[in-house]
## 1
Amino acid sequence: MFSDGAAETDNESVIAYCRGAGYGIDEEPPAPPAPSVPDPRDVTTTVVGGPLRDAAVEPKPGDFRPPVGAGDGNPHGPDVYAPGLPGGGLQPTAPPDPVDDGTGEVPTIDEPAEVKRPPQAATVGEWRDYAKTQVEDEAVHAEIDRATKAELIKTYGG
């Protein structure tokens, strides 16, 4: 009978069975073999759906921040590792935006974004904010603050 992971017997069959099963008999049990990391490039798989590409297995020149050692070593082994987590320190978290989008116009920081007219169901506060983007005169802004939603829609909704 076992007690606290130990047992006593003089039955040779039980001792042979336990020794064959890896139990230590009058000694420490043998250490389990160290597992080996399988190389996924050697594993055959069946793709269900659209095929995906792993930058650690098949890096391409356009990949943003591919893993160090990608394509050279086992992607799940110690020689291939990520350069850092996105957002850690001063690392970029996305590829830089191209300056020229093909239209020939280069956006500037001073250029205000286009403000879209709110839907009629929007709050009076949203309509006031929108109306103030349409007029630069501070005196008109004071009038906008006193206007009703219906007046704002009539004046700036069209």
## 2
Amino acid sequence: MEKKLENVCNYILSKIPKYRRTQLFLNKYLFFTYGYYYSATGEEPFVANFHAWKYGPVEMKVYHEFILEPNKKYDINTLNDVDLDLVDDIVNYLNKLNENLVDKSHTYECWKGNLNNKIPREQIKSCFDVNNQFKIEGSGITGNEYLNKIKSILD
């Protein structure tokens, strides 16, 4: 597994409630972080290999190779090209949701249309572009303005 993905996992684990520090929740947090981030910035926060499984999207390398160590430190140097403020905002948003993250992941067409198969990365981005609840329709804002809107809504 690439170091960046491993460190994103450890970073997210350091930000989520203890009862959510499981493979199931980690994979949901990764999926939503990846989708919202990619949609907002046009950049992938990590190289993803999500598959649509029964209980939602699963990042295959994380599922097969990542050892869940909730207190493991992350190497911030491998994340220097990732907007950690945006990752924090997304994770904080997910932490506040009362909604079941498995059920929420099942509402996305990129999961529905690829059940038991790989979900193409561009399809995830497109899906979040359409479903991105942070977007203000018809606003005409893009780039940094869009990121600032997302951050202000999540605060």
## 3
Amino acid sequence: MEMKTENRNLNFFIHQMGKDNLEERAVALRFQITNSKQLLLGGLEFFAGHHGEWLEGYERIADWLTDNRGKSIVVTGPYGVGKTILCMHVLPALIRRFHGKCFEKLRATELCNEANYRKAIAAKFIVIDDVGTEGQFVDYGNRHEVFSEIVDGIEQQGKLVIASTNLTPQELRRRYGERTFDRLCANATIANVVAESLRGKYERTD
């Protein structure tokens, strides 16, 4: 009889511990946008000022727009494949249009500035362009790996992050370490755009 009582108490404790842990973790915004492929291509054409070309990897971005499942997104790929236009302009504009959320926008190289570091850590919705080019922010001798702290915020504070990078997933792992990369993969969609640079291929039509 005592053994059964102890087992019930233990089960209750484990259940409650798991419940408390879930309550402590903030939930990121989940959104769904229909006709995402058409909207993505239209946004590219609008902000780039020329005909939009559908590249390998864009489909994964469109799927994220259709239902992000509460996850952030990191768009990887070489120079000139539309990462900055997508992340700094198209995706934030669509989320603002359909869900009313405004994003703090920063280039990674700006994260070493104290004011921008504070903004990045505090922001609920944030875009970081060109991840991997930033240095560390030093505060009274304490060195901060800012992007790693932002990734922590996705899991702990429910941040919604849109990020672009020229680094491959393997390079991201080496740059930020196993812990940050593991958290990033668990809480963000990684969309790898595979193509040659489009810069200079099209003339602006505006």
